[in-house]
Design brief:
The chain starts with a helix and ends with a strand. Strand 6 and strand 7 form a beta hairpin. The chain has 11 helices and 12 strands. It folds into 2 domains: 209 residues, 2-Layer Sandwich (Ribosomal Protein S5, domain 2), CATH 3.30.230.10; 171 residues, Alpha-Beta Plaits, CATH 3.30.70.890. The protein is of the alpha+beta class. The strands form 2 sheets. Strands 1, 2, 3, 4, 5, 6, 7 and 12 form an 8-stranded mixed beta sheet that branches. Strands 9-10-8-11 form a 4-stranded antiparallel beta sheet. Helix 2 packs across helix 4, helix 3 crosses helix 4 and helix 4 packs antiparallel against helix 5. It is globular.
Amino acid sequence: MTLSQLTAHIAAEFQKIYGRAPRWIAAAPGRVNVIGEHTDYNDGFVLPMAIEFYSVMAADRPVDGKNIITLRSTLEPEVATIDLSVPIKPSKPKWGNYPRGVVAGFLARGINPGGLDVLLHSTVPLGSGLSSSAALEVCTATLLEAVTGKTIDPVEKALLAQKAEHDFAGVPCGIMDQFISALGREGHLLLLDCRTRKTELVPMSDPSVALLIINTNVKHELSGGEYAERRAQCEEAARNLGVKSLRDVTAEQLEKGKGKLSELVYRRARHVIGEIERTTHAAEGVRQSNWPTVGQLMFASHAALRDDYEVSCAELDAVVEIAEDIGFKGGIYGCRMTGGGFGGCCVALVKASAVDSISKTIAMEYKKKTGIEATIFSSRPAAGATILKG
C-alpha cells in the first residue's frame, strides 16, 4: 500500500474501532541494510535504505478526557495503556513497551502529549530483520510531534527511539535502524558514520535498478550469546592491535598485527575492516550508478559474513547461490544477507526490468533447495518518518 492508501486504511479502521475520525496520523518506514553489516558497534559505516513498508498510527483525544494513552493494534489482540499520571515502566503487553519508551522519552524532555486514543497498523513484516520495532518507535515519536506541535531534531528523535528500545524492550540495538527510519528520504540511501553520527544522503534515482528483498522465512534459534560473542571478539582484536575500535585499523595494519591475534579473532576483524571499506566504496558506486561494482561488493560482503564472521546459515547461502547462478546476464548485480544473520532476509540489487522473472526463479529454486516458501518483494528507497494528518 502507498502512504495515501495506508492513510485511508487506518482512518477507516480507527473510525470502526473508536467511532470517530482520527485527528492525527503519522508513519515511519522499516529498512533494509544495503551493505555494512556488524560494522555499527565497531564505529564503522552502514548504508541502509528506508523501504516502502510502514508503521502507521492514527490518534484522537479520548472522549472521557482521561490522562491515559490507549494503544490498540490491528495486528495484536491485547490493548496497551500508558497512565501519564504515574512514572512509566515496562509492562504487558510486550508490544506496548516500544511506544511506552518513546512516551517516557518525551516526558523526560518536558513534553507531555496528554491522553490519547491510538490505533497502530504496520505493513513491515515482523521478525524478518526489516526493523519493525524501530519503525514503531519512530512512528510513535512522529505522532507525538504532531499531537504536541513540538518538533524534535531528527537525530535526537532517532536517539530517543534507540533509548526506548534499550530501556523498555531490553534490546541493546545500534543506531542504524532508528536513524534511517527518522532521516530517510525518498530516492536516497543513507550513509551513516556510526562513530560521529554524521549522515549523508546518497541519491539512488536510477529507474533501471531496484532492490529485491528475499525473506528466507527462517530464524534459527541460537544457542545464545552469538552477538555478544562477536562483539567481544572485535573488542579483543582492537585491544590487541592497540586501537580504540576496528574502525582505526587498515587491512595492511591487520596483516602486520596478525601474530597478536588468534586465527578466529583475526577472521572476525578481517570481516569488519573489509566491510567498512566495502561500505564506503559501495556508497561511491551508488553515487556514480556503477551497479556492477556495487553488486560485486555485495557478493564480497556475503562471503565475508559467511566465512569470516560466521553469521550466515544454509538458507541465506542458498539464496545468494541462486542469485550468483542467475548472474549479471539474468539481471542480478549482487546479493547478500542483510541484518544480524542466522536467518531473516537477503537483499539483491537487480535490473528493474527483470524483477518479475528473477523473483519467480528465486522462489522456485529456493523451494527446491530448502522446501521453504520465500517471501519476495521489491522496493525503491522510500521516505522517512512523516506526519500524514494533523
